[in-house]
Amino acid sequence: MKNIRNICIVAHVDHGKTTLVDYMLRQAGTFKSHEELSDRVMDSMDLERERGITIRAKNAAIHVKDAKINIVDTPGHADFGGEVERIIGMVDGALLLVDAAEGPLPQTRFVLEKALARGHKVILVINKVDRRECEDGSRIKEVVNQTFDLFVELGANEEQADFPIVYACARAGWCTTDFERIPNLISGKEKGSLEPLFDLILKTIPAPKINASADFSMMISNLAYSDYVGRLAIGRVISGSAKRNQKMVRKGINAAGSNVDENFTVTQINTFDGLKQSEVEELEAGDIGLISGSEHFEIGDTLAGSASVETLPRITVEKPTLGMLFSVNTSPFSGQEGEAIQSRKLRDRLLRECRQNVAIRFEETDQPDQIRLLGRGELQFAILIEQMRREGFEFMVGKPLVLFTKDEAGNRLEPFEKAVLDLPEEAAGDVTSLFQQRKGILTSYEQLGGTSSQGSKRVRLMIEIPTRGLLGVRSKYLTLTRGEGLFSTLFHGFFPYKGEILHRTSGSLIADRSGPTTEYAIRGLEDRGMFFFDPGVMVYEGMIVGEANKNEDINVNVCREKKLTNMRASHLEALVHLAGTRKMSLEDCLEWIEADEWIEITPKSIRIRKKILAQNMRSVNRGEDA
Q1: Which pLDDT value is given to residue 81?
Q2: Cys staple from 467: which of 213, 217, 257, 415, with CB 3.0 to 4.6 Å?
């Protein structure tokens, strides 16, 4: 039996998890001297590198002294909390990273709660101790106390609450358990490394509890794919061992929710070695590895050595709070820029996503060409949409809608979020007013030690707000804080319905005919609102080309050309310029649209349109056609 430790690294978004894993891999000798290393090597997806966040949980392994440490890097954004929930059962302990200046934030609370509920031992890593706000050390001590309070509040037992503390600067690749050494390490008087962290992991995190003599049993916690052997099941071996060519049983469920047993033969076994997968003859109890042999592996299935082995409890995650309609593209430009998929292919692609991501659920609708997905947040949907777009698909999505429920008395309940806002002090009044308009309640106002780029003090607001109130608020918040505000949320629970919330006070500018937009037409309509497109863009009837100044929809002719005459005043035309257009990203569109509108997604374009295209078939009063 090898000396094994299984740990996950959990934290709020941007607190330094992936950077720490980088240096753990480097200092453990995972990479050869000639290998060229990039930052955030664990962020393998293009979208992860572009956005600077971890989206999918990923595995790696390092060898320290005589032990193998399996590491799972998890996402820090609340929308991807399902990744944390399914991974937490693979490990026996956790490294909890907390930013030395920002302290515990909503996702810190979420991931810590899951780790403590599993009974895991937790090592607290106070990261970014070199930040300017932490120069005198008082903020670091304050953050340690806040984290201890969080442990107690979440019901940690005495052993868990007596957690070891490591002070680290992940981007410089050093850590220490001695608070007094921090200034010398920051200044470079002393050389540091991550060895204290490695020693603490081996000392604090227990080896996996196993039953090596029992039949093989493993829970599938993640999936991968190989061009040579097909689908790969990733999980930790609970008992027994697996060998190549061994006969096994996959205990899963079918689309109807019934139990299904499938016999298969193991074709290949791999374990993690650094970031690579190395083929082995046998996978032992306690280790994390990959097994191939079936194309029907699903997250939550149990792999067993015989049919008599008891099925392990399936992975469960918290309920979704948002729903979104996905539809076949029915726009006039359908099929011009990508693959105009039929409902069957759209359904298959979304079902495949639901199998790989237990936090997303699939729901049929009354319309055969429309499917509803249920999930955690707008960013989660935006990532899926962007992935499908890059795969060449064309489709449409509707406005994200909150999922309501009822209590025992039949009263309507809606999901609430805890929002934590770090922002310059001078913007606090406007921001508080914005959130109060959306039924938010300010529960805490705290002065922070840092200052904004303008030199003003920063404050932290904690607001309890309906999930509906957060839809479309992020861009307004960034505008009010001049881009300096930090915004994070955590699901708080279901509470009584708070009444109507005003989402958008302006209507839409809608093209009334097909053709290319012209500068002459847009210039003449600029007093009607803000346009989303420059001249020369092809539009169709019913396509939304801008945001109106009034609280009603306006049909406009953006294709009108200037009539040619013999009399010209070219010197006057040269002085007239367009006021500018607002470029709408996918996230901007998801925040902006109403229930009677679609977002048309193609590999090259993102357009917003009315569900009813013909202007003589819809009202200009907003919301009547929803």
Answers
A1: 67
A2: 415
Residue of 290, 293, 284 whose CA lies nearest to 272: 290
- Hey, what CATH topology would domain 508-617 get? OB fold (Dihydrolipoamide Acetyltransferase, E2P) (2.40.50)
Provide the pLDDT confidence category of residue 165 given band limits of 50, 70 and 90: very high
d(CA 375, CA 368): 21
Instruction: Count the helices and strands in the chain (H runs, E runs).
Output: 16, 37
Q: Which amino acid, residue 577?
A: H
Distance of CA 14 to the CA centre of its chain: 12
What is the end-to-end Cα distance of the chain in Å, rounded? Answer: 62
Structure tokens at 137: 């050390």
State residue 27 phi and psi, 5-degree precision.
-75, -15
What DSSP line would sit under 41-75, residue for residue?
Answer: TT--SHHHHHHTS--S-EEEEEEETTEEEEEEE--
pLDDT digits (tens, 9 = 90+) for 429-460: 999 999 998 899 999 898 876 554 555 688 88
Contact 518, 535 (CB under 8 A): yes
Q: What pLDDT, on a 0 to 100 scale, did the predictor assign at position 567?
A: 54
Q: How far is CA 125 from the centre of its chain?
A: 22
d(CA 575, CA 581): 18
Domain boundaries, given as residue ranges, for the chain: 3-63+73-204, 217-304, 322-402, 405-496, 508-617
Using the structure block, give the residue that is written with the tokens 């930013």: 99
The residue among 550, 525, 529, 556 whose CA lies nearest residue 621 is: 550
Domain 217-304: which topology?
A: Elongation Factor Tu (Ef-tu); domain 3 (2.40.30)
Question: How far is residue 610's CA from residue 623's CA, in Å, rounded to a whole number?
Answer: 11
CATH number of 405-496: 3.30.70.240
Tell me, what DSSP letter sits at residue 211? B
Tokens, residue 541? 């009837």
Task: Mention every residue, 6+ apart, whose C-beta is less than 8 A from residue 533.
Answer: 517, 539, 545, 546, 558, 581
Rg (Cα) of the chain, in Å, rounded?
Answer: 27
With cut-offs at 50, 70 and 90, classify the pLDDT of residue 295. confident
Question: Quick one: which of 564, 609, 581, 568 has its CA closest to 519?
Answer: 581
Q: What is the largest CA-CA distance in the chain?
A: 97
Segment 31-55 mean pLDDT: 56
CB 417 within 8 A of CB 495: no
Domain 3-63+73-204 fold is Rossmann fold (3.40.50)
* Domain 322-402 grouped into CATH 3.30.70.870: yes
C-beta neighbour count of 283 within 10 angstroms: 26
217-304 and 405-496 in the same fold: no
pLDDT of residue 574: 42
Dihedral through CA 56, CA 61, CA 64, CA 69, nearest 10? Answer: 70
Residue with tokens 């399996």: 70
Query: What is the C-alpha separation between 220 and 299, in angstroms, rounded?
Result: 5
The residue to which tokens 């055969």 are assigned: 368
> What are the E-state strand segments in 521-596?
529-531, 538-539, 543-548, 554-556
SS3 126: strand
CA dist 12 and 54 (Å) reads 11
